[in-house]
Design brief:
single chain, alpha/beta, two-stranded antiparallel ribbon, 8 helices, globular
Length: about 240
């Protein structure tokens, strides 16, 4: 039985890992997938990706890395994404994974204008096109965010399905089998709060209020539902 792949493009900060686990566990819990149906490849540590034909689909995680650094492991993964798209492998990129898919497929990534976007924010749907994984998605829904870079120019093959107040490209759809989100559908409320606590110093330095961000943090069930629908599609 082929596994669902988690492409780990980084790891959670040590304080978060110690209490709330690492990225692969966040995706396993968020997508509600048994551990024995998953395979994790830590591309940032030099691990080799399988051929797309060896897996049923792939999540591509977030990272503290900057995509614009063009690290070798990142560029190699971009090449794998292009091969996977040609093979019509189901793909779901998140945060860095969202940016990496856009970069791999002809878009442009850079710093988000106005600085870091962090906390629970409303995501507004703007495309009513039919896609099974998005069926029933509300016109506006909360999602957890933590990013400095963003997709600045969308690849020609992508459709923009949703935006936030500050980022116009929060959800991109490439095909029925491939999508990506700048927001973090794998984040729990506790995990979002932990990131705000961790970043409170830089938030204050950037003119943001971490106390207000914590007070506004609340569950984001619709965002998480996207992960579960994708996983069910891959494993069914």
């Amino acid at each position: 039985m082929k596994p669902l792949l988690i492409i780990a493009t980084g790891e959670a900060p040590p304080k978060i890992r110690a209490r709330l686990h690492d990225f692969p566990q966040h995706f396993r819990l968020g997508a509600d997938v048994p551990a024995d149906r998953l395979r994790t490849v830590r591309v940032f540590a030099g691990e080799t990706l399988p051929a797309p034909q060896e897996v049923v689909g792939a999540f591509i995680t977030g990272s503290a890395a900057m995509l614009t650094d063009r690290a070798r492991w990142s560029e190699n993964t971009a090449g794998w994404i292009r091969t996977a798209m040609d093979a019509q492998l189901p793909l779901f990129g998140v945060c860095y994974g969202h940016q990496l898919m856009a970069h791999a497929l002809g878009g442009r990534v850079g710093m988000l204008q106005g600085g870091r976007e962090i906390g629970t924010h409303d995501i507004t749907r703007q495309d009513s096109g039919s896609l099974p994984i998005l069926d029933g998605l509300p016109a506006s829904f909360p999602a957890h965010l933590s990013h400095q870079q963003s997709v600045l120019e969308v690849p020609p093959t992508a459709a923009v399905y949703a935006h936030s107040q500050r980022d116009p490209h929060q959800l991109l759809v490439y095909a029925e089998h491939a999508l990506s989100t700048q927001f973090h559908p794998e984040f729990s409320t506790a995990l979002m709060k932990a990131y705000i606590q961790l970043k409170r110093g830089v938030m204050v330095a950037e003119g943001q209020d971490p106390h207000a961000a914590l007070a506004m943090t609340h569950p984001a069930p619709w965002a998480r539902r996207l992960l579960r629908r994708f996983a069910r599609h891959c494993l069914s």
